User: Fold this.
Amino acid sequence: MAEAAAKTVLDKISQGHLECPICCCLFKDPKILDCLHSFCLMCLEEMIKSRQRKTSQIQQKITCPVCRRDTQVPYGRLKSLSSSFFLSSLVDEVKQQQAVLREASARTATCDCGEGKEATWRCLDCSDNLCQECRKAHGRVKSTKNHQIISLGDWRKSKLPPAKHRKPITRMCKKHIDNPLCFYCDKCDTLICSMCAALDHRSKKHKYLKIADSVRFFRSEVDSTLKKFKKCEQRFNYTVNSIEHARNRLQKKLAQARSDISAQEEAEIAKIRNKAKLLTEKVDEIGQERDSEYEKALMYNRNQMNRAGEIVKAVNDLMSQADDLEILELKPKVMHNLEFQKEFKFEPANHGPSFIGVKCQDVVSDADLGEVCVSEKWQLKEEFGKRGTGDEEFKFARGVACFSNGDIAVTDTELGRLSLFTSTGRYKTSIAQGDGCRLLKAPDGVAVTHDDLLFVTDKKKVEALNDELQFVSDFMYVGSMIGNAVAVDTKRVAVADGGRMVINIYNFNGSLISSFSNDMVDKDVAISNRDRLIFTNFKKKRLLCVDFKGNEVFSVVPLLNGEPAEPTGVLCDGDGSICVAVQSRVHGDDEVQKYDSNGAFVATVAQGLYNAAGMAFNHAADIVVADGVSVKIFERVNMAEAAVKSVWTISQGHLECPICCCLYKDPKMLDCLHSFCGKCLEEMMSKQKPGAEKIICPVCRRETQVPEGGLQSLSSSFFLSSLVDEVKHQEVVLGEASIPTATCDCGEGKEATWRCLDCSDNLCQKCRKAHGRVKYTRDHQIISLGDWQESKVPPAEHSKPITRMCTTHIDHPLHFYCDTCDIFICSMCAAIDHPPAEHNVLNIDDSIGSFRSEVDNILQKFEKCRLRFKSTETSIERAQNRLQKKLAEARSDISAQAKAEIAKIKNKAKLLTEKVDEIGQERDSEYEKALMHNRDQMERADQTIRAVNDLMSQADDFELLELKPKVMHNLAFQKELKFEPANHGPSFIGVKCQDVVSDADLGEVCVSEKWQLKDEFGEEGTGDGEFQFAAGVACFRNGDIVVTDTKLDRLSLFSSTGQFKVSVAQGADCHELEAPWGVAVTQDDLLFIADQKKVKVFDNEVMYVREFTPLVDDQEMSESGLTGIAVDEQRVAAADCRRNVISVHNLDGSMISSISNNMVDFDLAISNTDRLIFTNEEEKRLLCVDFQGNAVFNVMTLLNGTPAKPTGVLCDDDGSIYVAVEYQATGDDKVQKYDSNGAFIATVAQGLYNPMQMAFTPTGDVVVADVHSVKIFERM
Assistant:
């Protein structure tokens, strides 16, 4: 083990200090360069030869492979370099020790005398193994007697004594070879012997000393130099630390700058989002208002229609169920009710408000922008109390708190009273000084917990009461303080003593949590949701905030009209904001101000207070303020409110009285044809003022004149009476039908097998026969009891006709009806009181027939009115739907603009951050260079110092003095050693952020649709990009615009900005164009062209694809003239203006249908409601048909109130229609907008010269072919 350890030590020594850095082997003839690094002679020679081979030049210098310093090659080449004798001796020693170890590893050692005897001793000087005899001989020989000899066992165990066993080396003079070197000449920097000193170094210029003294002085000089280096090293460390500190500060400032940029970016983005939010809210507000108008119009029209429907239903029920006499008797009322058509008016469908949009604008600029503040306002909702000492009166209402049921507790410090009121201010109860066994001495501050526990500060106690002001518990203050104010949160109670300027914090059970003093504590305190205490100081005019340990968070001065004002009550909101009541010098000019959680003023939220003190939130989140002699309840108007609308429903039964909700009893009919029980009407009439002559219908609120005979003289509703009787009868029938066995009503107990429907009797077989024999019953309808029980009743009437008798001539039935008097008459009345010359007397059957015919005519008119209503309702609903669509588009536009503006801000932040990073990297690079330079300098110095230290510790005196010039030369590095100083200036970097969002709104709300000219290209001429008559226009998905010129018979292609690309003229290729007119582009970018008799298809590069002919008959083809063309997702429609035909095809050209209409002209469009829209210029009409050719509408186009010629037509996605209209004056043509039912909405574009076809671009703009130019309009 000892041998292995010794071997390991030798290997480490040899590897760390005795290996050449070039060949990594033990040194062989080591040479020392000027930098004091040593290398094998052979390695240096090989290195310099290699350099000479590469450069083909003799190398005068050699560069150290370790430190890269140059050494001048001496005249005698590399062999003349100083040899490292101590390295050579060390290498020899290591080799010797390694050999010793190898020999010691053998199990049996023999003596080196050659006699083969076993060795037991080891001479450390000769390195010989000795037997016992040689051991004795070794001690007898003069030259070896002083050698150190140890036992071989001890030697093997490496138990070597610490003393050196190597003899000192004696160096001889080269000039006087018999004389040893014993002096060192400082002048010549060389070792000399005594002869040299006597012969060559005798002058005073030469100063030589003994080698030992010279070595001692040399070591002293080196030590002094190394001490100086220590100071230099300290200076280096300080410089490096300083540079690193500056560098770290730079990184910190860079991070801070990035953080500032990010914060400013977020702030600016927040502004953009806030602007987008405000603009969206404005759009929503306008949208809701307009939607409400549409809803009102729909409700009004539906109410009108429901009212009319009720009248029509009542009339239909009357005409179908009442008998002729009753119908004629009610004829005046029926005709009066049917006059509703004269008053029947619908709210028209106003499509103007259905448009809403936003005109967005850029708000991000270099200009500064002030802070956007959305102020909160409070609105007085209710007030109760006045000056006095009564129950509902106050002398000084100071403290206020609210329970969860809305009840309000108020303290009056002047009266020493605690009062309880309802949420509306109605007095409930109170506790005054001296009331009850639990005396209230001076109630002041109040606060209510979530559990409805009321804490009241009462001098030196805190009383806890329930929501009925009944005592629950109390606790004493710590330190005999007097409580002025109290505040609670979910688990703590804070009590402020303005006299002792102390705030104590308690648990709900009264146990003390903490207590702290503050000379600003006064009479008001609140707890925020951020674990902070907010309080005011009235005299010192301060609003303060501390944490629960008393550490101050902020302290601000409330201002009123720019001057410091006295704060009183304080209240914390759930969002951390703070409301403070502030008193003014002017009576009645106090106000409540709002601050954020950091004490920054936000806004004034309430004004007009007189002596505001305590404040609290009630159950509805309103704010209750104790204001001296009254209590005010403020509503926060910026809070969202929900309104609940009740919808009245119509009674499901037709035979129930709307008043009592029971089956009619003696039903009476009012003039509005609504019926009610006679008794119900009498009860209702009795509640009116005495002498009232009119009764109001509870259903429709129409008035009916009470007849002279009273309510009983009102018309009876006989048909309702009969229906009620029938229902009751059916109930009885159903009840009887449930009896298992029915007996005959003759009373003999026989089983009944028949049922008389007229008598409602059960009949046996004998009674059935008797029923048929009796004169009065022989005509009754009789059926089997089984059929009757199964309700198999034939539909024929089974009740006897009612014969009405004349009330004047009671023996005469009523056979006539006098239209003049609107009354039934008998024959005697007709002869005596109603002569034919003056009265129009008709037979009842003729009169009822005439009346029914008249009612039918009126009802037919109502059906037309119903259709008109449905059309109006549909139109309003379309306008409403369009409004919702435009609202969604407006919100989307706002969101897109906000995103674009945010992208600008992010880009600005990115650029600024990149600039900061660029400067930071540049400066950090400078610091890195300084550090690298200083470290390189120091590392080089360290290498020199290590080499000098190694040399001083290992070399012998001769070698030290021999290498002294080189050592001193290397130690002169301090003169060249210069560190880069620590420049702290560049370590600072920051950003001075500025606002880039301007004061302008994000966009403008457009409440009516207008087109704004965005771009225009083309002029009159025949060249490329010029037009003689631009008629057709269409757009590809990439934005390219294709235009037809009907005078030049040319098709041209332009970019989206109007730059000419290519054209196809008449006869341009084998698929020549004859007379291109209308054009249309599909979703797949296929261009369909109406070209006289054919439809030709091109791609988006105006290359021919295919063609088809709409008509196949030769004669028809000769007469054909295709002009207009339109496409949708799966169809193409072509208009033939010569034959007045529209042909509908699949996109491959196969025929679907053909529609003839003599109004077919030049232009055509397909709407998204599967309709064809076209115009007729000569007849000045805008028409719509379905795909079967059925007319939907046909309207005249007007311009300034006079008929105008329509040309181009275009359909939008919402079903609306755009029509180009020509006017008499040049340059005054317009584009009008119509709804899907042909109703005019608005004029959207003006200033056109001769507009023809129109088309949408991919971005939603509108391209109009306008004779000599093409105009692009942006829809605003």
Summary: Residues 152 and 345 are 137 Å apart (CA to CA). The longest strand covers residues 601-609. The radius of gyration is 59 Å.
